[in-house]
Here is the input.
Amino acid sequence: MYDFEYHKPGSLADAVKLLSADPDARPISGGQTLLPALKHRLNKPTSVVDLSGIAELRGIKREGNKLVIGALAKHVEVATSPEVKAAIPALAQMAGTIGDTQVRNRGTIGGSVANNDPAADYPSAVLGLNATIVTDKRRIAADDFFQGMFTTALEPGELLVAIEFPIPEKAGYAKMRNPASRYVMAGAFVAKTGGAVRVAINGAGPGVFRQADMEKALTANWSPDAVAGVTQPADGLNGDIHGSAEYRAHLVTVMAKRAIAAAG
Amino acid sequence: MNVVTPFEGIGASVKRKEDLRFLSGRGQYTDDINRPGQTYAAILRSPHAHGRITSIDTAAAAAMPGVVAIFTGADMPDLGGIPCGWQIHNKDGTPMAEPMHPVLAVGKVRFVGDAVAAVIAETRAQAKDAAEAIQVEYEVLPAVATLEAALAPGASLVHDDVAGNICYDWHIGDKAVNEAAFIKAAKVVEFDLVNNRLVPNAMEPRAAIGDYDPTTEDYTLYTTSQNPHVIRLLMGAFVLHLPEHKLRVVAPDVGGGFGSKIFHYAEEAIVTWAAGRVKRPVKWTAERTESFITDAHGRDHVTKARLAMDADGKFLALHVRTLANMGAYLSTFATSVPTYLYATLLSGVYATPTVYAEVKAVFTNTVPVDAYRGAGRPEATFLLERLVDVAAAETGMDRVEIRRRNFIPADAFPYQTPVALQYDSGDYQATLDQALEAAGWAGFEARRAEAKARGRLRGIGISTYVEACGIAPSAVVGSLGARAGLYEVGTIRVHPTGSVTVLTGTHSHGQGHETTFAQLVTDRLGVPLAQVDVVHGDTAKIPFGMGTYGSRSLAVGGSAMVKAMDKIVAKARRIAAHLMEASVEDVEFDRGTFRVAGTDKTRSWAEIALTAYVPHNYPIEELEPGLDETAFYDPKNFTYPGGCHICEVEIEPETGITTVVNFTAVDDVGRVINPMIVEGQVQGGVAQGIGQALLESCVYDSEGQLVSASFMDYQMPRANDLPMVSVATHTTLCTHNPLGVKGCGEVGAIGSPPAVINAVVDALKEYGVRHIEMPATAAKIWGIINASRPAMAAE
Ligand SMILES: Cc1cc2nc3c(=O)[nH]c(=O)nc-3n(C[C@H](O)[C@H](O)[C@H](O)COP(=O)(O)OP(=O)(O)OC[C@H]3O[C@@H](n4cnc5c(N)ncnc54)[C@H](O)[C@@H]3O)c2cc1C
Here is the structure.
């Protein structure tokens, strides 16, 4: 780890001020992604701005037909929140399977979504549920937010404040874990919200993406069988020592089937 | 008094004495030790697998805050290379190629991770900062990252003076007899396989602290070693040229070794030497990534085998050709692993009349490869037990029957194999029967059918194995090229009040020696377990020792302790005889009590101990005071644990994920001292065996970069990857050591991989699978299922 300055602002405005004053400052939430990178000397921020003292980023609440989750909500909080479990059980279930106990006790939804690791869990829920990302400056639709591997619509210094999830009629998630890292090798989040079907695929490609053929098939017939025949092309998917692109393509269909079965 | 209740002697599952310390965070590991005035070393490592160093500029780095000194290979012209402990001879009698392994690279770097410079600084962070500021220019050379690449015509040479990258080309067995047997065969099975390379990943990374006292010129090295005396000898005599009496090596609590901490590593020499230069203690602790790219890896064989059988399925001859990867340099015992610890086991549990094995050891631009839990014997077992299954499949014989038909019978011991070893005892039918029963082998087809109804492919696999532990005797291994003796040393120090300190030259890094060895003393001397302490890991305390590897500690070290106890008892009886005014021959000793035979005259252990140290009424003319004896024990032979492992798996065809649903191990480890510890050792070994078979994949790219250099990519077995392992023992005693013990540290890792793969192949039998290389990952298995799907659909 290289030396850096440490700030712990008490308000969103102060955090934004610190971050906009210095392009090499980095926000930190749970630190479960940033800290390992710092320890490996892969990152050299001038200062680290700890968001954990900012009340505006906290909280999980139901607002009408939306669930609003503050950026600082830890995975364990999402997994165990009665509001989440009642409104979007698939999201609570997903949060409960991220990493291990230690990771879930520190890692946050804001950190995970801002990081947009292609093998992360949450991005598929955000995209599959057609959520809106609320930042200190604006509101961004999920379809516009994720822009490929570790890239999002967030501008430098822009902070993710909360995520608004429309409450679906049905939603389900299934994944196969990478055998070594236990991140996602291939996952599918399926949801039917206001009659519209979305299928978001994570792990398999360089970034989370929507599977249009499956969405079409499910719109016509909401059942695991409907996607069983939909082939995900291997082109452009990840291939590595853990599995080929063809394997991941195959898993996309398997996980989609399971996600639908889980959604009921 | 001195009645041992509850029973704590041989055969009792007493809880481990060391665990309170370990489980409450009070272990003292090398990195927990801090010396006054300590500095920190960071090692700058080669980012290239192969290159010529054209320049090193340390000026900017040396000027950085906190930097005490920077050393490169050029600063160490007088140091020797890291030595290899075993010289192998080629088929033509010439010695193996043994290129120099400099402590810090000189001229060339040969693997990613090769040490190029050492920075000594006030803090770890400062040392790392300065290491990054060293400017090294490399002329990058083509790398040979695999055996195939290293042996290709015109391949780049890892060592400019080692032609063809071949370290040695060795053989064992009678070639002519072997060839003749193949001519008579009714059936020959040919089979190629790979034994996958593994990264050991001990929980505690390696660490070393060098300390130097300028007033006495004494050096101390604290290090994560399985054998501190061996390190003292190798480093002192061959590398740093320090006399033994000026060098103390301490291996305190060590958090797992699995072989990887046997070897003498450059960092040990660097910190010791540097401490003398900067006249301050120097500490180095590996980071996990450093462990991945510098701890000696294991296995990495490519083998072609041929098995000749007669019409009844009896084995007539085995011919094996193996390529063994040595990595970039010869690690301490690297050369012995694919020869005397592998090829000598190729008879296995079978009465194959002739075995001929040829082994080529090859240099590559990868991390050095050396002994890893089982060392050679897992490779031999995997080959044989897969080959036997293939032979069964190709002759239509039952997998169990083909084994039974070829076993060395229980009444054939001692059994001389055609590959040098003489097995002293074993009963392979018995361990097989017991395992078949315990695993419910007979009822398997019903379980397969039930699984099929759930959409799962279920398979069962068996492995029957023998291995060799406690490598010995010294004279024999010496004649085969070992540069060390392989005896062990034990001291029994009885204190005036009767409590006992045991000094052993073996080392415990998780095995529970502090308990097992104390049980030997309790059993023999009748001293309660709480009054026996075992001391190991410090050359200043223990007379000498060869350390712990090859499951030798109890068989060899325990036997030395028994010999020392014999001396103690003999002397104590003479003291007792004097006190009771009896003749020595009439004094009996039984667990703490000396008695004149046939009388009620007794003396207690404590009385004798006190008399030995307060010799007021004592036969001082004939007997020295004190009760403290040392014995050196050099075994007559290896010991030969063996047994049967049965694995049952279920595969989910949609994903290829394999779940081990049942695992049964029945091992003959000789006499069992502490059944609980044996069970733990076997379970741990099986965990590593399942890891090798299904999970652990060490991958280099063609440039020689280790792709699987972190836990993000290298899959260590986790608790939820493993079944409950059912462990049982079946004992035949070792015939040549006083305890009858054989060793249990490696059996789990040796017997299990072929059982797992045989089960996977069995589960996939409807897909016509002959073999699947380890690790049998989900992706690989799905590939097999997917490839045969169109064919099956077309049927
Ligand atoms: C062992 C381990 C296993 C894991 N397994 C999984 C897994 O299975 N699935 C999975 O999805 N994840 C996994 N993770 C990652 C984990 O979920 C992280 O917690 C998460 O990715 C990042 O959240 P964080 O709060 O820790 O973010 P941090 O590490 O604090 O930050 C991550 C990045 O986001 C930025 N950032 C943080 N907060 C904000 C904000 N409010 N606005 C803008 N930018 C912000 C930071 O600057 C940084 O670039 C694992 C992590 C570990 C260590």
Summary: Residues A 26-34, 36, 51, 71, 98-99, 103, 106-108, 110-112, 114-115, 117, 120-122, 154, 159-160, 182-183 surround flavin-adenine dinucleotide (CB under 6 Å). The longest strand of chain B covers residues 315-327. The interface with chain A takes residues 125, 128-129, 132, 289, 654-657, 695, 697, 699, 707-708, 711-715, 777-779, 782-783, 786 of chain B (CB under 8 Å).
